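Components:
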Amino acid sequence: MATGFLTDTTVCIGCKACEVACKQWNQLPADGYELKGHSYDNTGHLSGTTWRHVAFIENPKKQRRLSGDVDLIALAGDVTETLPGNAELDGLGRWNFMSDVCKHCVEAPCQQACPTGAIIRNEFDNVYIQPDVCNGCGYCVPACPYGVITQVPNDGRAFKCTLCYDRQRDGLEPACAKACPTNSIMFGDVEDLKVIAAERVATLHSKGYDNAFVYGTPEIGGTGGIGGNHSKFILMDEPETYNLPAHPFMPQDKVKGAFVASSIAAAALAAVVALTFRD
Amino acid sequence: MSDISSDTLAAGRGDQNGKVETSHHPKTDPKQDKKGYYGIPPIKHAHWTWQIPVYFWLGGITAGVALFTAVSKLVGKEDPAVTRLGRYFSVLSMMLSPVLLIWDLGRPERFLNMMRIWKLRSPMSNQSWSLVAYGNVSGILMLKQAAEDGFMGKGALPRLVARLVPDRVLQVLALPLALFIGSNTGTLLSATSVPIWARNWMLMGPTFLASGVSTGLSFISLVLNLLRTGRRDTHHTLQRAEKVMLLAETGLIVASLARMSRWGKPLYTGKVGALFIGGTLLGGIAAPLALLFSGNETRNKSMLTSVLVLLGGLAFRFALVLAGRKSADDPQAYFSFARGDNAPQPGDKI
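Structure:
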């Protein structure tokens, strides 16, 4: 059985309980008290010591350029956005939240890159780094199409989400999914989650949210060459808004082609050098 | 309205409007016109420090030296001075390269884990194994050279070693390994998510190899000149080969830049641009070519040419590794690369 996450960003409230639960359960060190200054998100991105990250995306529905003396209070009272079903929303802007995590690719580029075999697929079909094998070469870091995996400077090894391998072994759900108060993070069998995701997207479409879609399936959203993700997301905007690539690709797809090209070049260069020996 | 709000919202000050980022005026923030999340890179760059480009350089020189020595043997114009240099240098290089690579590991004491498995799809794994294989072959060849040079004293042992080591067979067998090491330094970069490297997957290996062979030829030429050794025709052949190889390298670099297209921007801008254009294109290719094609061959001119080519090759590797870092840190480069058919896809014809 393959297990995975389904992160429904439409019900995420940005409480960051998943970030905290992940840090606590996995005993991950702090990243420092860094204030990014652009939103309530001071984590910024996933790293070797942050395996869940809640993105705070400000999504202004109406783009307006204000000029002259503006009465902000009158403006706020005036501006509304019509939603499906004649509902109204403050049109000045709203939040999109997304709890980002390792995508646990079906064909993982980090695993392909790993020269030591430290990165494996475990019995739950999750991408797992064996910490006792990793020698910190760092080649998985630029291979990851999502910028998830990172080398931890003081430790030297690469780390990322284990999908709470230890908790799964004991029959528990991962810490982030357990802590999530709105069930934005769902954990379970990938096949079940696929059905849930399809149903949820259909519901959203029927309510008029036509831009909802599942990110991380080979069919929708596009994951060229990596065969989809075991951590799927329901998104409401184009992937780049969430700092995700639209069509991630398998970097190792061309290793064979590059070898053939290099062999031809090597033969040609050898022939050229041989010719220069002629008098 | 207070002065503060009129200041930030005043007409005619649109450029400064976005200094305060709130949902009230996000559109005026220039950052918001671009795709992404507050400009935070969506992928992580490689942590590699100076050891990696230096290793790439060393690997390229090794490939060039192996190519010249093996070909000279095959065409029957072997120069003992070149062969001796090639055999000792290969071993030295195969001792230095692992040191550089292990130095760069996060857990150097676990370097042997590279030998746990062999993964054909991982250029890093292939590289480790090719270094082991070539290092061992080089070691055996060096033993024969040492025996012939009298480093094992006189007696039965050096005679036995000289007779038992099939140097001709080993030299030819070692050649593909060395050429693989030289080209794989480029392939290793291309098999990543970094736009500037991945875009040019087909020509990374060949370009690194051509550059490596030209540095290797220059290295042989430089050492022979420094030691005032080597036959006259060897020097002449080296000069001719250097000319051709520099031209081949130029062609491959031009083709690479064309293939990188707009994702190659880091190579033209900033300090990396200065390093690449000044160090590699002008200093490492144009200047040596001008020297090679002008007037008579003199020892000093030849040595200057060799030094320029060697430094240009080093600059090339630093520039490409640093350009990859800039490319990975640029969200727009990655997002535009990972849309449409720009990135390599499984269904690609080439």
